[in-house]
Amino acid sequence: MSRIETPMRIESAETIVTSPGRNFVTLRITTADGVTGLGDATLNGRELAVESYLRDHVVPLLIGRDAARIEDTWQYLYRGAYWRRGPVTMAAIAAVDTALWDIKAKAAGMPLYQLLGGASRSGALAYGHASGRDVPELLDSIRAHLDAGYRAIRVQTGIPGLDSVYGVAASAAGDGERYDYEPARRTPLPVEESWDTRAYLRHVPSVFEAVRNEFGPELPLLHDGHHRMTPIQAARLGKAVEPYDLFWLEDATPGEDQAALRLIRQHTTTPLAIGEVFNSVHDYTTLLTERLIDYVRSAVTHTGGVTAMKKLLDLAAVYGAKSGIHGPTDISPVGMAAALHLDLAIHNFGIQEYMRHDPRTLEVFRTSYTFTDGLLHPGENPGLGVELDDGAAARFPYEAAYLPVNRLLDGTVHDW
Ligand code: CS2
Ligand code: MG
Q1: I need a surface site. Which of 128, 315, 368, 411 has the fewest CB within 10 A?
Q2: pLDDT single digits (tens) 361-411
Q3: 319 has which bridge partners?
Q4: Which of 91, 71, 75, 80 is nearest to 23 (CA)?
Q5: Which ligand sits nearest to residue 129's alpha carbon?
Q6: Burial class, 46, CB count within 10 angstroms (exposed 0-12 / middle 13-18 / buried 19+)
Q7: DSSP character at residue 281
Q8: Among the residues of 268-332, which ranges form H helices?
Q9: Tens digits of per-residue pLDDT, 282-292?
Q10: What residue owns the CA closest to ligand 1's atom 1?
Q11: Which residues line ligand 1 (CB under 6 A)?
């Protein structure tokens, strides 16, 4: 495409790698008339792969393109790469796409959600991450999250006999303290954790019985199986927790085996959520068309951006599934803001994950989204409503960090 002399011509694009509490990769695109847009390109544990994909292979292709041509740029980067899908490619495309939507909304002088159809609700119901090494600590953590304003809670606990378990914070959250759980560790090699699914299956139902006894039947409770069960084990757990009326059971099995969800669906009415490790609508086709899941867990950052997420969530709506956009702290405030604009606009909104970022992160990313009375709102600033402070970013240099590797008690590598 020849260089286009339009105000929206892309003049420059740069990647910013920073580590305020944890690693983030951000893309900033600037147009000829000085409008900037941000995109989140963070892939926990593999950040530099995405940064290189962008800097070495994508940024040179962007210079001179018309920033207003978002769909064409998406197709150009997706089909033009020849090698399709995958977390690195789709995170890179997501960063470009999100930055272009940021630019378009800024140029239009309105918050992004207005370009996505306007508000369908006053705010997006958020859920927080309560956890405890044991039930008393978990109950304290739930109380702390309720005090912090959450109206839906994810519940994760330690498992008797296992040293450390996914999702259990290092300490119980005090009065509204942030959930201090960062799975990626700055160690030369990934930390190794041990897992015993049978001990987990024996323990979890009693945890939800204790939580329901303490907090009653109304509080929406979520749980993340984090990919570790076989289909029949997931079916067993889904059935065992039916009396506790979960909002959802997440990642009950490794979701790429889409057909496995048929078996789980046959055994339990517990709602199912899957998709945070997916990066394309094609990862969902069986799950959605056969109505095997109730919530789509993808993040804007990992699934090709706002353009792709809107298409995915519109497909989900056809089959009765709702959004449950992934929102851990390894999704940057830029990715979180993009999610919130979609959350506000789409009809089939379900719930939004919201782990509050480390205060250092918010020194780098100046956000305008709010969390009030359990609801998130992207704010009314033009664009995404997030700006990146380069001076602050420079204060937090990148440090390699790896997600844990999980092994069964006999040493066999297992899903983490
Ligand atoms: C988790 C994630 O939030 C969740 O549902 O599955 O926190 C996941 O462990 C991290 O995103 C991995 O980087
Ligand atoms: Mg999860």
Answers
A1: 411
A2: 999 999 999 999 999 999 999 999 999 999 999 999 999 999 999 999 999
A3: none
A4: 91
A5: 1
A6: middle
A7: G
A8: 285-289, 305-318
A9: 999 999 999 99
A10: 328
A11: 44, 183, 224, 226, 276, 328, 330, 353, 403
